[in-house]
């Protein structure tokens, strides 16, 4: 089968490409808008396309589809998921399949405040959010949402991952300057602070039925000490876990945005001071950057996704919820191969004082 993967060369897409290439019957073609990423891809052929919000994107995408005639196309960043979803009928008309939820669900998930409103409406526990339209709203946010130290969490609501525009602060002048810098009045959201403890729940659904889901705890961000928020969107250490509360919260969050989930839904959660996981966003129609972790551990989600989309027999996995054993760790760094280890292996192979 021939699969076209967008965003080739970037970490989110390369994990998917690695996973698909574990099956020698798969041929993977790549496309992307950043040549310096694209050249690094494992894809057998690599096509340059403009940014997804460019007026030239659609024509170039359809040109690539006409040339390659892939069986399936998959997108790996919010902006491209959103814009490709809007032209899915044109994509399908070429004979290439997509496996995505309806556009209204994508729209809700890529705009963080829409997700928040859906969670609140469904009774899912989330920190209170306020849209910041002007400095008076910002003052109100500090008054209503500040924690014991007066701190709130700011971030952009518009499309974009990696903690776009995130800033934890108790300083009004800094917050105002931050929003000014981003020209973000009307786009930024203020929220009550959660803890730095986070967990994710990555799932594939088909026409309302859960096919498989796997959770992992995050134990740090790559280059997190180089950002003001500590968040980069790239997990440094992930650990498989299995928690009934996390399962329940994740499924309720997904049902809050879609009454018939279809495709990939990745729930990001952060724990509050009472130790309860609060959804912060749903990564829609795309895999997390650590999807290779699960593949190396024995759960190839991109292959499962491809098989569902193309109506092929599914690879075997032990159970629907968290089929991988808890406690597996995925270590990542720059310019070094990631590694799957256990805490026991770390203790045995590292010489501690």
From TrEMBL:
Q: Which GO terms describe its molecular function?
A: ATP binding; ligase activity; metal ion binding
Keywords from the named record: ATP-binding, Ligase, Nucleotide-binding
Asked whether the keyword Acetylation is assigned, the reply is no
What residue stretch is flagged as signal peptide? none
ATP-grasp domain mapped to chain residues: 116-310
The record's annotation in InterPro entries points to: ATP-grasp
Entry protein name: Carboxylate--amine ligase
Q: Report the source organism.
A: Pseudomonas tructae
Mind giving the lineage of the organism this protein is from? Bacteria, Pseudomonadati, Pseudomonadota, Gammaproteobacteria, Pseudomonadales
């Amino acid at each position: 089968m021939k699969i076209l993967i967008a965003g080739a060369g970037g970490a989110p897409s390369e994990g998917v490409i690695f996973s698909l290439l574990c099956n020698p019957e798969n041929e993977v073609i790549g496309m992307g808008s950043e040549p310096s990423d694209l050249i690094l891809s494992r894809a057998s052929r690599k096509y340059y396309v403009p940014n997804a919000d460019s007026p030239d994107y659609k024509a170039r995408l359809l040109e690539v589809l006409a040339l390659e005639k892939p069986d399936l196309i998959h997108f790996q960043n919010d902006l491209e998921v959103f814009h490709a979803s809007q032209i899915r009928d044109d994509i399908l008309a070429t004979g290439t399949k997509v496996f995505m939820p309806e556009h209204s669900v994508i729209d809700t998930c890529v705009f963080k405040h829409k997700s928040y409103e859906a969670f609140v409406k469904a009774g899912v526990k989330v920190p209170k959010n306020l849209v910041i339209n002007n400095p008076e709203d910002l003052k109100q946010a500090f008054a209503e949402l500040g924690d014991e130290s007066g701190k709130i969490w700011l971030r952009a609501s518009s499309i974009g991952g990696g903690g776009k525009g995130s800033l934890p602060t108790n300083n009004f002048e800094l917050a105002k300057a931050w929003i000014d810098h981003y020209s973000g009045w009307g786009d930024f959201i203020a929220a009550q602070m959660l803890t730095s403890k986070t967990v994710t729940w990555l799932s594939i659904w088909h026409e309302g039925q859960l096919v498989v889901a796997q959770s992992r705890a995050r134990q740090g961000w790559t280059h997190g000490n180089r950002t003001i928020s500590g968040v980069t969107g790239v997990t440094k250490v992930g650990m498989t876990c299995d928690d009934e509360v996390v399962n329940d919260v994740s499924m309720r969050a997904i049902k809050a945005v879609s009454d018939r989930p279809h495709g990939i839904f990745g729930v990001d959660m952060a724990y509050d001071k009472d130790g309860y996981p609060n959804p912060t966003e749903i990564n829609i129609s795309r895999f997390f950057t650590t999807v290779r972790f699960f593949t190396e551990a024995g759960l190839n989600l991109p292959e499962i996704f491809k098989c569902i989309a193309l109506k092929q027999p599914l690879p075997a996995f032990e159970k629907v919820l968290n089929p991988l054993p808890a406690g597996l760790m995925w270590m990542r760094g720059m310019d070094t191969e990631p590694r799957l280890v256990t805490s026991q292996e770390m203790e045995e192979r590292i010489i501690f004082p």
